[in-house]
Write a structure and sequence with these properties.
alpha+beta; 9 helices
């Protein structure tokens, strides 16, 4: 999910091949947010492009050579699941006990794809996910006539118990659809284009289920390292609400029905 910009391969002064993303007139903090996310994920052990330069209108990162579609390389799904679980586990275990949900430190402009979202720090998952994102995004979608007015009542009916057992916050990629996981020529997985923040790990799991592209071995690998709590499958519609609402706002009413289904599935589920 992104604003319309341009990408190109560039050569740095030392001869290094790099990847440039540019967007003239980009929203304030747009590329800084992405750069901070890449750096946070990398610090936790994820394989991410190196950030070379970031300005208000461009981001230059290291070039990752994606797997050739004709290459006989099996996607290491199980290993990727293990790596994602280790990332979530490491962030959770090494965080300050007083770590709040929401923004990475030092950021005050936040995005999911091309949409601005509210990631101001909060004490609870419900506040950051439901109060600050699901309800306001639902209101925006209703105001733009993309969602039926009944959506707001359902959004307001989401309670902390719908989000599952309490867990400490962890760093999530935040936009982990299949297009934001690259596989290089060696078969290793890389994470790109994050909407990185302190959240709940089931946000990443749910996003991975939204558009497909991840085999069942990913979840096997994940659960071998950091097992998900009981009922995670029933919570997938709930944790898909933010990306679905953003899709409604960015791409129109074609995403309205899936969003309404996820809202109904959430409020009809009795945790």
């Amino acid at each position: 999910m992104s604003l319309t910009g341009s990408t190109s391969t560039v050569t740095l002064t030392d001869g290094t091949k790099a990847f440039r993303k540019s967007l003239p007139g980009a929203p304030e903090g747009f590329f800084q947010f992405e750069a901070a996310g890449l750096q946070a994920l990398g610090a936790l052990g994820a394989r991410v492009p190196q950030v070379y330069e970031v300005t208000e209108e461009q981001l230059i990162i290291s070039h990752v050579e994606a797997k050739d579609g004709s290459a006989a390389i099996e996607h290491p799904e199980y290993v990727f699941g293990q790596e994602l679980a280790q990332l979530h586990l490491t962030a959770q275990q090494t965080a300050d006990p007083a770590q709040t949900f929401g923004s990475l430190e030092g950021l005050d402009h936040w995005f999911l794809g091309g949409a601005a979202v509210d990631l101001q720090p909060t004490e609870t998952l419900h506040e950051t996910l439901v109060t600050n994102r699901i309800i306001p995004l639902t209101e925006q979608a209703i105001e733009s006539s993309q969602l039926d007015a009944s959506a707001l009542q359902m959004a307001q009916a989401i309670i902390p118990e719908h989000l599952g057992p309490q867990e400490p916050p962890t760093v999530v990629h935040g936009d982990l659809w299949a297009g934001n996981r690259m596989v290089d020529q060696s078969g290793a997985s890389w994470l790109i284009d994050p909407s990185c923040h302190w959240g709940h790990r089931e946000q990443d799991i749910a996003m991975m289920q939204l558009f497909g592209g991840f085999g069942p071995a990913v979840m096997d690998g994940y659960n071998a390292v950091f097992p998900l709590t009981a009922g995670w499958q029933e919570r997938i519609p709930t944790f898909q609400l933010v990306p679905l609402l953003v899709h409604v706002l960015l791409f129109g009413s074609g995403y309205s029905d899936p969003t309404m289904r996820s809202l109904r599935a959430t409020v009809n589920h009795h945790p």
